[in-house]
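WARN no homologs supplied; continuing
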Amino acid sequence: MHPYLISLIAMLGTTILTWFPALATKKIGIFDIIPSIFKTAQDRIFNLQGNGLSIVAFAFLIYAFLNSKILQNFFASGDQEKWKKNRKWVIVGLTIFASTLSTFLWWYDEYILFFPLVIPLFLNIGLDKFSSFICLFGGASAGILSAVSPEIWTGIFNQINVTTGKTNFTGTSGISFRLASWLIFTIIFVLFNILYCNKIYYKSSSLSQKKIPETLPVKKENEKKLSRGVKWLIGLVFGFSILITILGAIGWFASDKTPWGKREGISNDYLTSSYKGGIMGKRGGGTGEDYKKIGTMPKNIISDDPKDKGKQQHMATVETNKTERFWPKFGEWGHLQTCVIFVIGAVIICLLSRQGIANNLITGFQKTVPIILGYIFMATSATIAQESGMSNKLKDYILSEKVTKHASIFALFSIFFSFLVICFFVESLASTLFFSISPALFAISPNTLLYGAMIMILARFLVASVSPTNAILMSALKEVGTSYKEYVKKTWVLWLIVFLVALGLVGYCAFRYR
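OK structure emitted
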């Protein structure tokens, strides 16, 4: 079944559930699904803080590098027997690489675009395309289940702190538990990947060898070869684009570094009701003053003219002596700056390798359209649930009176199993729903709230890694030519082990921090 059809069924199912007063406070009609889709696209994808633009820009960079043929030529020109002999280290290295970036940088969907880069290597050493999938996507799943990143948790905990008003969690709260969980899951995936890849190698080595010529770049006599220096330069540009983005996203690494731009001057803010403050939302013409509108007030308060009675006067704050920076501080990056880095790197690679910039941009866009549409359809069900008030109703079922009565044992188990069920259908609803139950968890104990947040992430991405409603998973499977049924058949033992280990971690938290 097509993932878009599955997402549509989930949207229809969520809409029908809003018709029951016990599950929602507002009824959503069938035809309201279409406006919800557009609202989701606008709020979560196509704004400057959404990830739609960054996915396209990242695909542009990946396919510019891929079409330069440098990596494929490197794999083809190397000693094939050496690659085969060291295949276990390749498997271990890629799995740990994916797990590390995922757990510290929250990379998950990006690995779909990495598959074309490593598939030739896996085919050359006698493995199949699914081996590249299980190493990259599987490693990413292992990392995101525990999500060690203090930066990511700072944002989550800040929201929790605001919601409860009584907690002061930081990004390092509970980090020892997250590190231990990450090591456990990474070891499980590394061992599984080695066993699976060895099985494929010994079972179908000869068949894989026959497919090698199809994956290697076709050499043409009239094709201009790139010099070794240009190849190294292209590799450095690609690596630098990835590295600078990673380092810029790590606040604890970059917080003390010099900003990329002019430093801010001293800011002295004051209120104004002037005409300039009312009509200007940006910098006053060369005055060094930045006007920001904050609202209106009755004009007769500041004027004795009878004509002004009943009229409104704009109010604004004025920031003076402030030097505008055209680039953010290193470590305070948004999606827009990440896009700029990716695009600049892709353009440089295209110029060095004599490629068409427009062709690579179009290819990257075509490859990301299914991913972006999948994001929108996945999140639309969550939008419907929020607008109908269903998320407020669900929190009462997650933490019922029976659960809170025996909270010392069952609260964390209730969170784990509830989010497993909910996120199987509506994964993007997890964070919003958890924030709504944060005060109830805090009433049990601060530790229950702290570890409940980690268990929510664990349950969310555990079930998302096997759910057919996950457009990221379905797009990745399509990239490597594997059906969902084959995926379940090949990995059900792995996910059963992961589920049992996760259940054990939940039990540890429930009894250890009761």
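Residues 175-210 form the longest helix (36 residues).
OK
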